[in-house]
Amino acid sequence: MKIYRVMVVVLLLCLIPISGITEPNCNVYKMENNMPCYEACVLATEGGGAQGSRISQQKFDQAIAQCPALDYAYMEKSVPYLKRGDFISWKKLIDKAVELNPTLHLGYRGWCRYQFLRDYSGAIRDFEQLEKLLPLEIGYSQNGDYHLTVAKALCYKGLGKKQKAVEIIETQLNKKGYSPGLYEYLHLGVLKMELGELDDAISWLNKSTSTNDYFAEAYFYLAQVYRAKNSPKLQGENLIKAKEYYIKGYRRKDPYVHPMDKIFLTDIEEELASVKKPEKPHIK
Length: 284
Description:
Elements: H1 2-15, H2 27-31, H3 35-45, H4 54-66, H5 71-84, H6 87-100, H7 102-117, H8 120-133, H9 148-158, H10 162-173, H11 184-194, H12 198-211, H13 216-228, H14 232-248, H15 265-274
């Protein structure tokens, strides 16, 4: 039955990779005639208090006491600590969930290490360990925005290994059947700009705007590329568009963190103030 459970988890990850951590099928424990864990699983998955409330956390404590192998209870109990910034308490609980069920929880822990802690090296270790367990498909981030391979690439960028980040993203984009997410082209454009490959940067940023024209960031970074190419007219035009988009709410958003390559209105306004004005022709 343990093999059956692992097969179910792998199948679910392949079929619904962006769904995050789904509730367990408690009936699996009943099929194993493990009634204590069945009852604990039902308790952990039923309603009972708002997330992070004393009632809710006590419910998970009770479930864990009854079935210490119930990884779902450890994971769910950890989430409020993560959201509140108590990363030490979160880490202790999520580490236990990973220990009990690495296939299901390694990707989530790695994503949180990247997103919340900027623990790039730790996140890479989690993603690479998951690749060994699920060599065909490691799945997506908890919010569904990123394939975890792309998240791994951004971790390398965070460590200053930008060329490696480019190679990983480009390899992922070239995989047969892969559908790009919202941000791959944007990140590639920024990476190319940072590496000094300005024409490639323009190409990727234009691809970002042509496929998903909802981010002020793409126009802001295009402006930076044109500044580097000494094209103040195009720089200014893109900055104006970036400001329009930003004010309309077309920008990168996250309720908990500052996403990589996100910009602020002050960034745009400062760049606009520094745009070179074309010199007036001298009239004799």
